[in-house]
From TrEMBL:
InterPro entries: Cupin_2, PKS_Associated_Protein, RmlC-like_jellyroll, RmlC_Cupin_sf
Descriptive protein name: Cupin domain-containing protein
Transmembrane segments: none
Domain Cupin type-2: 45-92
SUPFAM superfamilies according to UniProt: RmlC-like cupins
Gene3D superfamilies membership: Jelly Rolls
Any Pfam family matching the protein: Cupin_2
């Protein structure tokens, strides 16, 4: 099912994620050729990269771990981190659940790959 993304509407991120207890990625807003999604992470996402888009994460709840080939980033609520296109990464919650916003091209390609 394709979700209709409302325009000129206030979107309550807390309401969108309330009661979500397993991985879920919800598109919230389209702007120009980009999308804002809220992601509820309860398990690691596989190693991947995006050949055609940078990807920006903003932590909202919990701590999001972003593994890169050469280091690990801990993103706490209110912090933002951008991963350039073509950079391998893997995301996961530190303590069972994290809620984050992602900003990227609406037509972002995701390529699964081996661990860094």
């Amino acid at each position: 099912m394709i979700r209709t993304i409302p325009q000129l509407t206030v979107i309550d991120v807390e309401q969108e994620t309330a009661g979500v207890s397993s991985y879920k990625n919800i598109p919230l807003s389209l702007f120009n050729d980009h999308v804002v999604r809220v992601g509820v992470m309860t398990e690691p996402f596989y190693w991947h990269y995006h050949p055609n888009s940078d990807e920006t994460f903003m932590a909202i709840e919990g701590t999001l771990l972003i593994d890169l080939e050469d280091r690990r980033v801990e993103l706490k609520p209110g912090q933002l981190f951008t991963i350039p296109a073509m950079v391998k990464h893997c995301t996961r919650p530190l303590d069972g659940r994290s809620v984050n916003l992602t900003f990227e091209l609406a037509e972002t390609e995701t390529v699964r790959c081996d661990a860094g």
